[in-house]
Amino acid sequence: MSTTHPSPGGGTLATWVRDLGLGIRFAVTGGREGWTRTLLTAVGVGLGVAMLLLAAAVPAMMGARNDRGYDRDYSWFNEPPKRTASTVLFAPADTSFRDDSIRGLLLKADGDRPVLPPGVEAMPASGEMVVSPALKKLLDQPGSKLLRERLDYRPAGVIGDQGLLGPAELAYYAGSDKLVARSQDGSTGNATRIPHFGRGESKPEPLGGVLTMLVIIIVVVLLMPVAVFIGTAVRFGGERRDRRLAALRLVGADSRTTRRIAAGEALFGSLLGLVVGTGIFLITRQFSTEVTLYDISVFPYDITPGPGLAALVALAVPGAAVAVTLLAMRGIAVEPLGVVRKATAQKRRLWWRLLIPLAGLGLLAPLFGTVSQEDAGVNPYQVTAGVVLLLVGLTTVLPWLVESVVGRFRGGPLPWQLATRRVQLDSSAAARMVSGVTVAVAGAIALQSLFTGVQSDFVTATGDDPDRAQLSVSQSVDSGAQAQRVEKAFADTPGIRDVLGVIQDDAVQGNASTLKSEDITYATLVVGDCATLRELARVGAGCADGDVFLVQDPGGYGDMSFAKPGDTLDLNTPVTDKYTGTPQPWRIPADARTARSRVSPDGEQTWGVLATPAALDVAALPSPSVRLMLRTDPGSPDAVEHARNTAARIDPTLTVFELTATHESRKFTTIRRGLFIGATATLALIGASLLVSMLEQLRERRKLLAVLVAFGTRRSVLGLSVLWQTALPVALGLALAIVGGAGLGAVLRTMVGESPHVDWASVGVMTGAGAGVVVLVTLLSLPPLWRMMRPDGLRTE
Amino acid sequence: MSTTDNLMEAVDLHKAYGPTPALDGAEFAIRAGEVVAVMGPSGSGKSTLLHCLAGIVRPDSGSVLYRGRDLTAMSDAERSALRRGEFGFVFQFGQLVPELTCVENVALPLRLNGTRRKEAEARASEWLARLEVGELAGKRPGEISGGQGQRVAVARALVTGPRVIFADEPTGALDSLNGERVMRLLTDAARDTDAAVVLVTHETRVAAYSDREVVVRDGKSRDMERVA
Amino acid sequence: MSIGHTLLGLLESGPRHGYDLKRAFDGKFGHDRPLHYGQVYSTMARLLKHGLVEVDGIEPGGGPERKRYAITEAGITDVEKWLAQPEKPEPYLQNTLYTKVVLALLTGRSAAGLLDTQRSEHLRLMRELTERKRHGDLADQLVCDHALFHLEADLRWLELTAARLDLLAAEVAE
Lengths: 797, 228, 174
Ligand SMILES: Nc1ncnc2c1ncn2[C@@H]1O[C@H](COP(=O)(O)OP(=O)(O)O)[C@@H](O)[C@H]1O
Ligand SMILES: [Mg+2]
Description:
heterotrimer; A: 797 residues; alpha+beta; 3 domains; ten-stranded mixed sheet; seven-stranded mixed sheet; B: 228 residues; alpha/beta; Rossmann fold; 8 helices; 36% helix; binds adenosine-5'-diphosphate; binds magnesium ion; transport (chain B); ATP hydrolysis activity (chain B); ATP binding (chain B)
């Protein structure tokens, strides 16, 4: 049986298999201690694996959501489809309730075989609706009275999953017999005719270059700490393992054999971790229905990693576990009589540690200024490799930093001395402990500064002034009289304090009927009382009913040359390029004054002819629309819901806008939300790994703690020393993260052509979040510390 | 033996861990400058007795009088202060803080009492020299032998000038020669400073350094001097 | 213990008078049983006869105690041989103690109690030896250690026996 003898050369496959197998046996049969260690590793790796699987499922998840979104969407056709037995009329009737937005569509079948949106079994009859399960639940809640009043349809069914983006989506389809197909020129009708649901051939627009880069970096930044965490998890209980390996050396195993046995143990732990991780993944997936994070909810079956990515995780994790173990064991010598650390003898060198981030920089530098949103061509591998190298570089520089800074400390108060000495003795363990936080914070800082750099491209100031009015409504009406009824309806709505309303129409030159269509020029006609006009232009305190004001377009595009005091305008504006109908002249009073435009509460710069009601009879306007700005009562939080109900009574497709100061591109918003979700999960993971390493450190020092307590050491001394012992490397790690993160951020900003400036606010927030996690972890480790400071530790095993 | 010359006296100590009684009516008394060996088979309750006497563990019942004060009635903080100020400890092994140098280890109890670092380390150096390990001052515990480490630990127990030194199997991990040297240095120093020593051991040769012995069996103590 | 070999060994460091030899012997090895002068004479006479020592000189005044002895080549070889030869292990105290322990068990007394008393007795002597060791020179320490280790060995044997017999008693009682 020659195979059972340890072969001194030991490189063959057979010896590898044998020793790995031996390691696996130790992991299984190592008694209670061996099991604890294996389980700890398995749970740690499992958490990481679950994160990786989740990340691997994101592309498929987004794809599935996108597909369903496209399948239920509608297209506009240049040539309106012919009415057939299967065509359908629709009008969007989205609304919001409190903080939730509700997708709504009014439908009317043209014939008896109407096409149906995905997830809907039968076309709702007029006055009926089908609702998503989440909306059904919301409607059934006692607090949803206002919503029930608004969606005043009889529920006739439930939308199936294939018609929803996620389980928590609020959506309804309501039947309406009031829908009339819009005429070709859009002047009549309120609905669009479609032959089918779905966008057909049209594909989602690709992410632009900047967004692609953002996504890549988010993924890298979120997954790097997971990798670091898995690396830490594989080392859980390493010291005890080394002692056991030393015992094996004593009975004749050579050092290669011990290394392979250790690899076998790590392999087993990580394989178990894969199983645990898959379990955690499958279980959390089930809970995804219950969770709505940042407005996104997903169906469990959407969270399915692509087979390629899943296979990559399954191979990379055990492979990395073995690699990390072998690497860690290079730093120590397991001798028959115990473990000798080799590393401490030599001082760490900086130069090769700097090579790694420099290599990353070298990869990214050629891209400076080349990435733009219009151009989708970013080489994802180059960006990923560059960012990964830069961040990995931080973890290689960190041990050097910790060693060279902490190595200088001498003396100080006792807790400080205990802590610094501890870190001095094993600076690599300290550096390892905080490398996850360092990478996460550095990545987050870099991302944040990239975000603030590019967000001006995606976030636009709306110009809204929510201080002057809080809601706005616009609606075309049949007549001035109807416009006044609409205004009155909102004025009578509970919670609405004030209504600023104008009635608008367009006017053209007085001789427009004789002009060629390209020569016809339009100006806006705005009718409102003095109080309202004051919000639109600087009409002055002297405004009285009967006045007319002429306002130039501050944007410079509008032409007012045909609208001077005394000029005649034609109120019959053509809706197509040919003038039709009879002219409807109106003369601008000779005493009309000029006024300068002013940004209105709804963010617009109104220009044209502003008239008070006595100067221009609204009944005379041929195609008026009403534009309202509502001021709500601050004491009535449901004012907006009441206003929406009023709007729905007037016309279900009428939307009430809440005035906000900024507006974000939807895609950008989605990415930002993804980042927040990921960052939360990553920070939680980092906290967990920090906690485990800390508890492990404490457990290894149990006996020593007990001796110190016997000496009469105060708890505060030990507590403080534990705090310092964590805080010191963390502070250094965070300092490095700030430098590295700001540097990486500057590099990324240069790549997208922004100035490389540092966003100190986000540096503060991210560093604070990292520090917060550490403080939390320290607090959580105090109760076990107090417990370990009991005399039980004095018993010798 | 009159009760009043006793520096420390324990009466009817009971302590149970779960259903197992570790101490079951143990008694103990020691005078200043006396070295008392606590002997008995392993698991008989020797360490538990020592822990109760030193105020590390609070007995379930019974009292421990130290210079007229009852340790069992003191708060945790008061007992800690007492241990810092008046007691010294030597254990079997693993008691030196591995990241501190030997001189820092010895200075530790002084610093816990608020002595400044310079002064504490100066006094620690003196004690190291007295225990014949002065040249180890700058070394870490991982770099010295077990016997040397134990002498450093003795120096640490003595550095505050304690009135009672508690030693639990102080030579348990040492060979005979080092064990003898440690015992000799420990008892010599205790004699010089008139400190009492509670010496838990199962080795008779080590117990021979004591003035008298107390045997613990099944949590009950037997004072062999009184018996004799 | 061979007195002849011991005296020969003492002569190896240099010639000595008879009374000098007795003092050295008593000081180093004879704490419990001092040597008689007669023993010295007869032993030295025997060694002379075998050619292991020779008379190095006689002080005026006569008398055997005035003779100065020196070791011969043959004597040195003899000491060397003696030192190299292991001693026959000799059961001596064990016999008595064993009898006592067995008796204790038979009469239902605790072997542990006997052990404690015996140890107390042993310790009394061991403390004395330890104290002597504190103040003596190296040779004193070696001699005391020898005695201490033997006493300890007795006790350890007794301890083990007592523990075994107590176990046995517990089994018997069940
Ligand atoms: N912290 C503890 N928890 C549970 N049992 C304990 C603890 N400390 C001691 N014991 C038990 O109490 C008994 C006496 O222990 P100990 O005083 O350590 O004995 P000795 O020091 O004489 O070997 C033993 O049975 C031991 O198992
Ligand atoms: Mg013990």
